[in-house]
Input
Amino acid sequence: MKVPLMQHFQTAASVLTHRLPTSEDLKILLMEVKMKVLGISFGRVNQRSDIMVKEALFAAKRAGADVEFYNAVRMNITHCHACDYCSRCRDKGDVEIGCAFKDDYQTLEEAYYNCDAIVIGAPVYAVGIVGQFKNFLDRICPSHDRAALLEENKKRAAEGKPLLDERYFKDRYSAYISVGGAQTHNWVAFGLPMLHLFDFSFAMKCVGHVDAYDQGRTGSPLLDDALMKKCADLGTALAQAVGKPYDEVTTWAGDDNGVCPVCHNPLLSFNGTTDVECPVCGIHGKLSVDGEKAMVTWPDSEIARARNTIPGLYEHCNEIHNMIVVCVPKLVANKELIQEKMKKYTNFDETIRQIAAETAAQNKEA
Output
């Protein structure tokens, strides 16, 4: 049922001027605002990744969301050059954090900022996800670390300066589809874990993923009704989650054969004790074995500090800050020593020729 526009305005005015919004306020506001689910495929045009991402978007549309799709395979998205342009944008007070390299990255960047949920599909070529996805991730995610930007906004607010683009702080939901041809799963084992890296910086919550391997024998996902249903379930889950607080969404769609309660991936880091870690989310659990069955118990305190949470991001943000405090004085104090020691590295070819001459002389003497 559509809420009368006057009630919508009254609710908005109350929220913005008098108090924090209640869950009922949010429901009323969201009924007037159309939510958008973005789909990005990093695979070949109209091939497996495209098909499965679009299937998710079809379901999201049926569930009431607006949808948008991009195929990135023909886009020019160069890698991050670590030039610090994005950091300088932030430090000099810009409202938007941009990238110095102007290519098709900006198209996907804007599409992401304007979405409320995202489904990404990408092929596995060499055990892990295709590199173009990592190019996009490296350029958009570290520069938009939510904890760092929250601290930046606190500083700007205290100084009366313009705040950062509010879209950087939006809660979003995600879903992922890893596409691989291999029948043997260990040849695609890093596909989904790599896709989940996209969750971290923006503190997104994933509602499901699909591990679409063995496509070499399947021929086409269109011949696998069960697989296509799992992709559709991702779209439905995204549309139904949008607008709800994270703690109210417990849905998980698609494949669920993982061990981690956050990313649902099956990887564990093992150090020879019963203390184990999810290498994707960075949370610790306790391993136990009962006969042939192994189990991991994950404390709530660990789940609450996963890499895709604000506390988890603050851990990393504080770690970087403390690193700078230690590193910068050390570099300043040893500036001349470092410059002297760097000469053989900056003059690499000359150093190699010198090593060759010294080695030849030693061999001749021998």
